[in-house]
Amino acid sequence: MHGEPYRPCGAIDHLVGRRQFMGDLAAGAGIVAGSSLLASPGGAAEIAGLGKSVVVVYLNGGISQFESWDPKPHLETGGPFQAIPTTVPGVHVSELLPHTARQMHRMALVRSLNTRQDDHGLANNLVRSGRMTQSATEYPELGAVVAKGLEKPDFPLPGHIATMPAGAGGRGNNAAYLGPRYASVNVGAEKGGVVNARLPDGMTVTADKRRHDWRRFVNNRFRGRVDSAEIDAYTQTYEQALRLMERRELFDITREPTRVRDTYGNSEFGKQLLLARRLVEQEVPFVEIQHGGWDFHHNNFEFHLHYVADFDRPFANFMEDLAQRGHLERTLVIVMTEFGRTPRINTGYGRDHYSRAWSIALGGCGIQHGAVIGKTDAKGAEVTDRQVDHRHLFHTYLQAIGIDSSGDFDIAGRKFPVADPAAGPIRELLA
After folding, report:
1. Which of 23, 63, 224, 408 could lock onto 59 through a cystine, CB 3.0 to 4.6 A?
2. Buried b vs exposed e over 357-367: b needs ≥16 C-beta within 10 Å?
């Protein structure tokens, strides 16, 4: 495929510098890291010592299950693409995924999702938080929960990182009552990863240390007299920004050998996967990569032909690379999206939003490799076996990495369930 694929929905690249990162984090200080987290789910200290990571590849917009994980090639509305065998006997995926098909023995499929939500915003909230919600800030997203659950004392890097093509900074407002300490930090995959990470000309290391010592002294003195959530948030922000600057070489993918960079390719997506692999090596608890623009209401087949190709080879290489380096056994990889696409082809040769019967893929740590959970009818319109939803997935993700999803967070004496207590994990999917 030549060049970058056309993105009809418009990808948003948050090119934010260090100052923006500082400001955004402080702005989210309404609920701060200083909140009392008296209980951590699942014996987090013991689990964190195992160095587990979660990598989410988010296909923003809604990939078609027919052109990926649950092909129906003999249907009139199944599309022109055939199904191909994988490394798991009897399991087939779309022919658009030839490289990923060779990684299926390290993966599993869930083909029986019914989330009953066809709106982009609400569906995003559902699959990210595992709850029915009207607000993106009502419940913490998976990344925040993992960052908290796998937190290690004095860990020098953010526990919840979102990659982007270039630039660095900005912090998501996606940790809800867990506080901004566990919200996502955006880090670029190009231009060294972290911009504005070096001292300005004329500023010596000694002078910089003295000014930060003075800042800490003033903060601590004032904090001793005033119980201020904002001070806690600013303090955490500055200290984390300093740690990012000190470890900036970790975000520079040009330090990888040329042969390694070549295997990931020169696409934005490939570079972000390579950065994710470097972060997994450092045992960062949670990394998210977005591959946007999958909302194909028109020309569904043409767009999937190009987009799936852009995904397939780099993703398969990422799985292979993790496995060869011995990291896949402690890394859960999730290919996530907000919903599937309609069995019906519309007048624009596209597929519309469809949440009643769709699929996701996942692999690595804690997952029964080669498993296929559930199935849909011959037309792909209804789930006919083992129906599950966003709640079951959220429990499953956490259980796979050893976090007790039935536990509670204790925030200032108030209990918050880690996951929806009305549901549980997909037991047959867990190793």
Report:
1. 63
2. bbbbbbbbbbb
The answer to whether 182 and 140 have CB atoms below 8 angstroms apart is yes
- Alpha-carbon distance of 369 to 431, in angstroms, equals 8
Closest Cα to residue 235, out of 26, 21, 48?
26
Q: What is the CA radius of gyration of the chain?
A: 22
In angstroms, the CA 112 to CA 373 distance is 7
The two structure tokens encoding residue 15: 């090119």
Where do we find the tokens 């955006």? 186
CA distance 68 to 308: 8
Inter-residue contact 149 to 112 (CB < 8 Å): no
- 182 DSSP 8-state letter: G
Q: Is 349 helix (H, G, I), strand (E, B) or coil?
A: strand
Rounded Cα gap, residues 341 and 352, in angstroms: 5
Residue 87: which pLDDT band, with cuts at 50, 70 and 90?
very high
174-215, pLDDT tens digit by residue?
999 998 889 998 888 876 656 555 667 777 777 777 777 787
Which residue ranges form the domains of the chain, and what is each CATH number?
Answer: 18-198+207-429 (3.40.720)
Distance spanning both ends of the chain, measured CA to CA: 37
Nearest-angstrom CA–CA distance, 323 and 242: 32
Whether residue 103 is predicted with pLDDT greater than 50 in this model: the reply is yes
Counting other chains too, the contacts that 81-88 makes at CB distance below 8 Å and 24 or more residues apart are: 81/301, 81/304, 81/305, 88/370, 88/372
- Rounded-to-integer distance, Cα 235 and Cα 19, Å: 14
Sign of CA dihedral 348, 353, 359, 361: positive
H helix intervals, 282-389: 300-324
What's the pLDDT at 176?
92
Q: Which of 110, 37, 107 is nearest to 70 (CA)?
A: 110
